[in-house]
Structures are given as structure tokens and as C-alpha cells.
């Protein structure tokens, strides 16, 4: 899904996402399978972490516009903001 949004984003464009993450609540979540975890709020969600987002930024060929920022929601879930700029191509895109 991210790859397709990135594909249609113009050069110099910004990709902004707010994602559920493990950042700051690592000891409160239980991994179920892959990146799916059980959270203290009772939900099962796909969670990212810092390493995952930095690898994704690099794989996309983008640049972080701002450091990752995470909001801890009463220790029951964490939401991380990821803002990446798409580099302009030499064709001026």
C-alpha cells in the first residue's frame, strides 16, 4: 500500500502517516505473528518500530523531513508520526 502511494507521489512531495507502533510500549505488547501484536487496549494491530520505519524510508529512497515522533496513549497504544520527502528527479519532477 505504501509503495503505491509513494509511486504516485510527485517528486518533492511529502508522505505523511500516523501509524500504530511499539515505540515506548515495547514491554506492554505481545507479538502474535509477523508485525501483528496484541495491545493493552485489547486490539490486535500491525505495529511498526523505529528500525522498520528507517528501513522503509531508505527502501523508498526518501528522506525523513522530521524525526519520528510518538504519542503514548495512556500506555495502551502508541502512535508514531512518519513524514518522508520524495526526492525530485533530474527531469525536474
Description:
The protein starts with a helix and ends in a 7-residue tail after the last strand. The strands form 2 sheets. Strands 1, 5, 6 and 7 form a 4-stranded antiparallel sheet that branches. 13% of the residues are buried. Helices cover 19% and strands 39% of the residues. The chain has one domain. It has 2 helices and 7 strands. With 93 residues, it is of the alpha+beta class. A hairpin with a 2-residue loop joins strand 2 and strand 3. The model has no long low-confidence stretch (mean pLDDT 95).
Structural class, please? alpha+beta
- Number of individual domains: 1
Main β-sheet description: 4 strands, antiparallel
Backbone shape? elongated
- Stretches where pLDDT is under 50 for at least 5 consecutive residues are none
State the share of residues found in helices, binned by percent.
Answer: 10-25%
Number of helices: 2
Question: Between the first and last Cα atoms, what is the distance in angstroms?
Answer: 22 Å
Strand content: 35-45%
Task: Report the C-alpha radius of gyration, rounded.
Answer: 15 Å
Label this structure with key terms.
alpha+beta, 7 strands, 19% helix, elongated
Characterize this entry briefly.
By secondary structure, the protein is an alpha+beta fold.
Annotate the secondary structure layout.
Layout: H1 2-8, E1 14-21, E2 30-33, E3 36-38, E4 44-46, H2 50-60, E5 62-64, E6 69-73, E7 77-86
Antiparallel strand pairs: 1-7, 2-3, 3-4, 5-7, 6-7
